[in-house]
Amino acid sequence: MTHSMEGVLDTAEKISSMEIRGAGYIGRAAVEALRDFALRLDTSSLEEFNAETRRAAEILLKTRPTAVSLSNAIKMVMRYRGEDTESALRSLVTNANDFVERSLKAVEQIGMIGSHRIRDGDTILTHCNSMAALSIIETSHRAGKDIKVIATESRPRYQGRLTVKMLDQMGIKTELIVDSAVRSVINEVDVVVVGADVITVNGSLVNKIGTAQIALCAHEARTSFMVAAETYKFSPDTIMGELVPIEMRSSQEVYPDMPEMVNVTVRNPAFDVTPHQYIDIICTEAGAIPPEMSYVIIKEKLGWDLEES
Ligand code: RUB
Fold it and tell me: Which domains does the chain show, CATH number per domain?
């Protein structure tokens, strides 16, 4: 091939290895890599331009299977139109820049909308490391509410350590707990706030492994469970009845120096499914919705139609 895929392959590797992680970051990084690749393409053939950008898009799409932000973001960019390479490139770059801009703005809007549900004196429990969830927490803190956060470690990759570092920098009182301590602290928690990798058409949530257990625990304790999700985290494919693929990661992440054993294997699913019955509200940039309204978001905000699926 004449064109260098170096930048695309580099970003793809960073997403696979989780150097770039979190559904929002993944979507933006993929879109930027695709845009930069298109900008470097040196061709006057529209056919070649289309084929090359499609090839790059496919490489990026294969990096992590669960986060729908990746495929939604790439689909939005690949909806470019043009009669020649110049206009096609212009359209692709505009789509990419629009996505990044709207995605960053969405995180801010979710923070503002979600913060209305946080009261002065609340204790919030969060899991993993979600920019959208943290935006709600930070906006509440900035509004002068006296809040405390309990953050889980989020084994095996310990994204909770990133979360507590960020909360510390925001000046928010935070307590770190092991994942299995959730039941022990849930009665002190007023609201659980988590991010999303996918929201399905029936309003169920796919997020970091352990989220479903926390939701079950919150449900039993009558503690509110709030999800922070940009509209591009909603999955159009689920309207077609498709199930969300759950990424299985290496056993090394769970047990790095595992001694040799004959009868033991390690299972390491990266995400789990929280049924919509356990979710009180989903905060999107288009408003705070009950999970049952997810279909409307997919239809109206993602411009989904049958032909595209
Ligand atoms: C990250 C994770 C986050 C969501 C939302 O998983 O489950 O809760 O991606 O994050 P991983 P954000 O670390 O495996 O990517 O709100 O930042 O998009």
Answer: 6-108 (1.20.120.420), 110-308 (3.40.50.10470)
Q: What is the pLDDT of residues 243-284, one digit of tens each?
A: 999 999 999 999 999 999 999 999 999 999 999 999 999 999
Check if 283 is active-site. no
- Give the number of residues written for the chain: 309
Q: Which of 197, 217, 237, 280 is catalytic?
A: 197
**Ligand 1 pocket test: which of 19, 166, 199, 208 has the largest number of ligand atoms within 8 Å of its C-beta?**
208
Distance (angstroms) between ligand 1 centre and the Cα of 133 equals: 10
Q: What is the DSSP letter of 259?
A: P
- Which token pair is 290? 């009950």
Query: What contacts 24+ positions apart, CB below 8 Å, involve 163-166?
Result: 163/126, 163/128, 163/129, 163/134, 166/129, 166/134
